[in-house]
């Protein structure tokens, strides 16, 4: 279980990114973080693996403290937390296989990481993960030859190569088209279910969050203003998270995008016919 208690982050400017956030995520649960820009979603994810240092409060994973760890212990802790980034964070000049194997860097010594001579077990694991994310035939391609959806699949496989106890996912579909976004979310949720792996997903697409997340946490100005099932995410709740005016404008934009996608599909079907 991941547990955050009274987590706060205040920057030197005095701005509060997180204000007394207390949530727990049990094993196997997939939590969607939603909220307007600047609500603290990315900061929350980065505080959990201490890419951003919280000002106060506590974080624990499986009963072991994350806050307060020194450099060596923090490195060991980060092996247990897989991170999937919005912009993929791949090494473009390396192959797909090499990028996936980089998920093992926290487990190997300097010389192995420098020469990239991984064990046969690590290589076998990487092939298995590439097969699971549908990229086995692309193992020897350079990362910069892939599409956005394929790059995100490599990022997922790399995070899983760490054999993590928790996945942190930062806007995995922000740069993807609607169809690919659904494919990526279906892949992520399927993998989490197979491994009983908890995940926190920072996601800007509310309908996508409602479709795929087991639980929704809504942030506004660094505070939790909603925590519940997707089915409980009513118009009033969404207005509380985003502000009534902003939510209604966002909903109109989503409806327009969905109509445009449906129109494009219909045109392709007519051409095919």
TrEMBL record:
Keywords: ATP-binding, Cell membrane, Membrane, Nucleotide-binding, Translocase, Transport
UniProt-recorded Gene Ontology molecular function terms: ATP binding
CDD domains: ABC_PhnC_transporter (cd03256)
Highest taxon in the source lineage: Bacteria
ABC transporter domain span: 2-246
SUPFAM superfamilies named in the record: P-loop containing nucleoside triphosphate hydrolases (SSF52540)
Signal peptide start-end: none
Similarity comment text for this entry: Belongs to the ABC transporter superfamily.
Protein's UniProt name: Phosphonate ABC transporter ATP-binding protein
Organism encoding this protein: Roseibium polysiphoniae
Gene from which the chain derives: phnC
């Amino acid at each position: 279980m991941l547990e955050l208690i009274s987590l706060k982050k205040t920057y030197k400017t005095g701005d509060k990114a997180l204000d007394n956030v207390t949530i727990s995520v049990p094993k196997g649960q997939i939590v969607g973080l939603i909220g307007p820009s600047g609500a603290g979603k990315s900061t929350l994810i980065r505080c959990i693996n201490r890419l951003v240092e919280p000002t106060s409060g506590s974080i624990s994973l499986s009963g072991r403290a994350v806050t307060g760890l020194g450099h060596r212990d923090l490195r060991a802790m980060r092996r247990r937390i897989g991170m999937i980034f919005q912009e993929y964070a791949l090494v473009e000049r390396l192959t797909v296989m090499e990028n996936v194997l980089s998920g093992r860097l926290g487990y190997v010594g300097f010389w192995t990481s420098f020469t990239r001579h991984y064990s046969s077990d690590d290589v076998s694991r990487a092939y298995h993960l590439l097969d699971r994310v549908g990229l086995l035939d692309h193992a020897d391609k350079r990362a910069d030859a892939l599409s956005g959806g394929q790059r995100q699949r490599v990022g997922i496989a790399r995070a899983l190569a760490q054999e993590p106890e928790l996945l942190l996912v930062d806007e995995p579909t922000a740069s993807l088209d609607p169809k690919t976004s659904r494919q990526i979310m279906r892949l992520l949720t399927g993998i989490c279910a197979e491994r009983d792996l908890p995940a926190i997903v920072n996601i800007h697409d509310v309908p996508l969050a409602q479709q795929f997340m087991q639980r929704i946490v809504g942030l506004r100005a660094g505070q939790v203003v909603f925590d519940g099932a997707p089915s409980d995410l009513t118009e009033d709740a969404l207005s509380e998270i985003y502000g009534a005016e902003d939510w209604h404008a966002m909903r109109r934009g989503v409806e327009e995008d969905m109509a445009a996608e449906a129109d494009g599909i219909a045109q392709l079907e007519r051409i095919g016919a």
